[in-house]
From TrEMBL:
Gene that this polypeptide is encoded by: galK
UniProt-listed Enzyme Commission number(s): 2.7.1.6
Family from the record: Belongs to the GHMP kinase family. GalK subfamily.
Organism: Kribbella deserti
Residue ranges occupied by any GHMP kinase C-terminal domain in the UniProt entry: 275-356
Enzyme class: transferase
Stated name of the protein: Galactokinase
Length: 378
C-alpha cells in the first residue's frame, strides 16, 4: 500500500520500505541519562518509511497523513534548518553525514500507526527508520546499536530534545518475545524473556490522551536537577549512588527538590534489577508490585505524572491489577498495567468509568506484543 502511495507522491516506485517500532518501557524511567538501567519492549506499532535514492543531493519528505512535500538540501543541513516532524528524518540524514557516512539525496514517505504524544517513542522510531533507509539506499551497513547512538545524537542536537539512549536502542535492538535489559553505563544489552500470556497474564497499555512533549522545560529541568545533584555529590552520574548509600547521599544535598529526584533515580535503578531477577526466575507476577512502587516514586519524588495518569493507575489497582505505572517521559502519555488475563476487560472498563467520572477524554487501549526491532520490509 505505501509503495502505491509513494508513487502517487513522487512519481516513481520506492527502492525499498523500512520499519522501526515504538516502544513501551516496562520499568526504569528517567534512569537512562543517569547511566542507569532500563527494561523496554518494542511494540508491533511502528513507523514505516518508503524511500528512493535521488542523484541530486536533495531530500524530499512527505507523510501519508498529509501530502505536503518538504524539501531540503542535503549539503546545507544544520540544526534548525528543518522543523516540525520533518526535522526527524532530516536530523537522521544530518547525523549520518556528520559521522562520515556517504548518504545521498532521497525521497521519503512516512507512514505510522503509532499514536503521537502517547509516550511510545514515535520520534525515535522515525529517526531509526529514516536512518536505516538512508544507509541501505547506499548499501552502507551499520550495526543496530551504532544506529541507535547516532540517531540519539540527532534527537539531542538537531531536534533539540535532551533524551537518553533507551528509546533508540529499544527501536533498533529489541527482539520478539523479550524485554531489552539495557545497562547504559556498561553499554551492554541482554534479552529477557517476557511472555505474559504464558503466565496467564496480560500487559495492558492505555493511552490516557494527555499528550506530552519532550522538547520542553520540564524534561530538561529533571535532567539538569539530576546532573546538578551528581556534581554536588562528586560522582560522574547518579548510577554511582547505591541503595545502601542513598541516605548518606541525600543528607549531603542542599536542595530538597534534588533530594527527591535522586531518590527516584536510585530506587528506580534498583527496581529494574529486581524486575529482571523476577522475570528470569519465572516470577512475573512479582513485577506488578515493582510497577506500582515505580509509579508512586514518579508521582511523589520525580513529579512527572498528571491527573489522567494517576486516575488510570488508581483505577487499575482498584480493579485488581497486580501493578500499574505511568510509562515514558511523563506529563501525559500512557500507563501500563499487569493484570490477570481474565480480568483485562474489567480492568479496562474500570479505567474508562473513572475517566468518565472525572470528565477526562476517553482513554485508548493499545496492543502490547513484545516485537522485533527495526528492519527492512521490502
Amino acid at each position: 500500500m505505501i509503495a502505491e502511495q509513494f508513487e502517487q507522491v513522487f512519481g516513481t516506485r520506492p527502492d525499498g520500505v523500512w520499519r522501526a517500532p515504538g516502544r513501551v518501557n516496562l520499568i526504569g524511567e528517567h534512569t537512562d541519562y543517569n547511566d542507569g538501567l532500563v527494561l523496554p519492549i518494542a511494540l508491533s506499532q511502528q513507523i514505516v518509511v518508503a524511500a528512493a535514492a535521488r542523484p541530486d543531493g536533495r531530500l524530499r519528505f512527505s507523510s501519508t497523513q498529509g501530502r505536503d512535500v518538504i524539501e531540503a538540501d542535503l549539503a546545507a543541513l544544520e540544526p534548525g534548518s528543518v522543523s516540525d516532524w520533518a526535522a526527524y528524518p532530516a536530523g537522521a540524514a544530518w547525523i549520518l553525514r556528520e559521522s562520515g557516512y556517504d548518504v545521498g539525496g532521497a525521497n521519503l514517505l512516512i507512514d505510522s500507526d503509532l499514536p503521537t504524544g502517547a509516550g511510545l517513542s514515535s520520534s525515535a522510531a522515525l529517526l531509526c527508520a529514516s536512518a536505516l533507509a538512508l544507509l541501505e539506499l547506499r548499501g552502507i551497513e551499520v550495526a543496530p546499536d551504532e544506529v541507535a547512538r547516532l540517531v540519539q545524537k540527532a534527537e539531542n542536537i538537531y531536534v533539540g530534545a535532551p533524551v537518553g539512549l533507551m528509546d533508540q536502542m529499544a527501536s533498533m535492538c529489541c527482539t520478539e518475545g523479550h524485554a531489552l535489559f539495557f545497562d547504559i553505563q556498561a553499554m551492554s544489552i541482554a534479552q529477557i524473556p517476557f511472555d505474559p500470556a504464558a503466565a496467564g497474564l496480560q500487559l495492558l497499555v492505555i493511552d490516557v490522551k494527555a499528550p506530552h512533549r519532550h522538547v520542553d522545560g520540564e524534561y530538561a529541568a529533571r535532567r539538569k536537577s539530576c546532573e546538578a545533584a551528581a556534581a554536588q555529590l562528586g560522582v560522574p552520574s547518579l548510577r554511582a549512588i547505591s541503595p545502601e548509600g542513598l541516605d548518606d547521599a541525600l543528607a549531603r544535598l542542599d536542595d530538597e527538590v534534588d533530594r527527591r529526584r535522586v531518590r527516584h533515580v536510585v530506587t528506580e535503578i534498583a527496581r529494574v534489577e529486581q524486575a529482571v531477577e523476577a522475570m528470569r526466575a519465572g516470577r512475573l507476577r512479582d513485577v506488578g508490585a515493582l510497577f506500582t512502587a515505580s509509579h508512586v516514586s514518579m508521582r511523589d519524588d520525580f513529579e512527572i505524572t498528571v491527573p489522567e495518569l494517576d486516575v488510570a493507575v488508581d483505577a487499575a489497582l482498584a480493579a485488581g491489577a497486580l501493578g500499574a505505572r505511568m510509562t515514558g517521559g511523563g506529563f501525559g502519555g500512557c500507563i501500563i498495567a499487569l493484570v490477570e488475563a481474565a480480568a483485562a476487560d474489567t480492568t479496562l472498563a474500570a479505567i474508562e468509568k473513572a475517566f468518565a467520572d472525572h470528565g477526562f477524554t476517553a482513554p485508548a487501549p493499545l496492543p502490547a506484543t513484545p516485537s522485533p526491532g527495526a528492519s527492512r520490509l521490502t
